[in-house]
Amino acid sequence: MSDDVLRIRTPIGIKYQYSAGPRVSSHLIGLMEGRFVGKRCPSCHLVYMPPRNGTCAKCGCLLGEDVEVGQRGTITTFCVVNVPFLGQTIKIPYVAATILLDGADMGMQHLIQEVEATEVRMGMRVEPVWRPREEWQPSMENVLYFRPTGEPDAPYESYAGQL
Amino acid sequence: MRDVAIIASAQAVNTATTTATPVEMLIPVVNQVLANAGMARSDIGFWCHGSCDYMTGQPFSFVSAVDALGAWPPIIESHVEADGAFALYEAWMKIQTGEVDTALVFGNGRSSSGDINRILTLQLDPYVVGPLWPDDRSIAAMQARACLEAGVITERAMAQIAARNHHNALTNPVALRRGEHSVEQLLAAPLVASPLRELDCPAHSDGVTAVIIAAGDRARSLRARPAWIRGIDHRIESQNLGNRSMTTLPSAVIAAQKAGVANDKIDVAELHAPYTHQELLLTAALGLGESTSINPSGGALCANPMMSAGLARFAEAAARIMDGSADRALGHASSGPWLQQNLVCVLEGE
Ligand SMILES: [Zn+2]
């Protein structure tokens, strides 16, 4: 029938208060100071950066002491983004990479710029380019992107365990 | 059927707020229940978790809970979007299959992440009732009002239940709310959602409960007096409030029957009744009499950690068997408006 109700709108809204937790907080405070602060697992001694949700998933335990890492790091693996998509803010092709910061045992994702996509490679040494200090927030977005340092590439063995 | 028993439990101290992440809250309780059982993570055959994404407001938030388990080498694990008591039911089934002999079951929730009375509105039918945004208290108050008008309960009986549970919680170290209140004091308190007063409503809290269950001789080797699961049954009412009885709980009646509640005397019952009038409805539906001690822990009225309060009832009932103070106990867990879901478990000593 033409007057059947086929669709209704029932908007819902709930406000939540997100808590980073004490362990991730020291990491976020570090970012406000332009530092990369990770955490060491007291059981397997791996350094997590970022410190995930404050836990070592492998050991099932709470992370322990703060460990400052970086700021330089090594590209362990990467992908070249060639596909345009809605809301894209970066000119394609560009590179998203997994970066192992010096002193960390866990790679993190970030953008690679100031280099042609075709020149990016595994083992390439990179450093962060921070936003102007007055724009810093408790967020990894304080780092605009990573760029090559010009150092010789890291030997494969130094990051083979990450792959 | 394989004989399966609860052999250990642990609960976090319930709090009104917390800054820890859900997984940070879980780890100490998982460690504690393992210590209480004298077991290592590698001794656990199956892990089963109850939680709800609406509590944290994060899709797939339960995935991070696995980080509390130390899932390396890989483990066998499952999750229910429900109270941990329903995870215990799944774990009991898993042991029945013969695949595993032990299971660690846990439920957790941080009620303080949002407005819990409003979050619970989202469990209502999203077409007709949900868009009116009745909060949890208002829905419960409608049921209490219907029961009063039908003569099923009295305000005085509700106050007596509030007084007893808050008194019992004085000796429960993990309760959030406790205290001595006279019935007259309680009846003089202002209404928060007529006919409910503040202490007729649950003390919503942030909390974690973990329980270990084991089969047969494995249970006997781990605990001198395990709490044997002699019957367990889960029944559900219609999700359409208009199809529901407001003054009786037919699903709880069936669950109690199937779980064999009436086969012998029940010494202790831990009922997951968030509101005072619901304890009365449950006591009637489960056929519990004067000889049964109801909610020695203070129940969900004194600490209602969402997704963990039902499992806490099982833990409290089992504790009375394990310490020898009861021979036959009942654990009950519920979920949904007006006690829509009812899970009944009969526990016995040997
Ligand atoms: Zn570790």
Automatic annotation (TrEMBL), chain A:
Please report the stretch or stretches of sequence annotated as the ChsH2 rubredoxin-like zinc ribbon domain: 30-60
Residue span, ChsH2 C-terminal OB-fold domain: 67-131
User: Which Pfam families does this chain map to?
Assistant: OB_ChsH2_C, zf-ChsH2
The record's listing under Gene3D superfamilies reads:
6.10.30.10
Q: Which SUPFAM superfamilies match?
A: Nucleic acid-binding proteins
| Protein name from the UniProt record | Unannotated protein
Its taxonomic path starts at: unclassified sequences, metagenomes, ecological metagenomes
From TrEMBL, chain B:
Which species is this UniProt entry from? freshwater metagenome
Q: Extract the Gene3D superfamilies matched here.
A: 3.40.47.10
A GO MF term = acyltransferase activity, transferring groups other than amino-acyl groups
Name the CDD domains for this protein. Answer: SCP-x_thiolase
Q: What is this protein called?
A: Unannotated protein
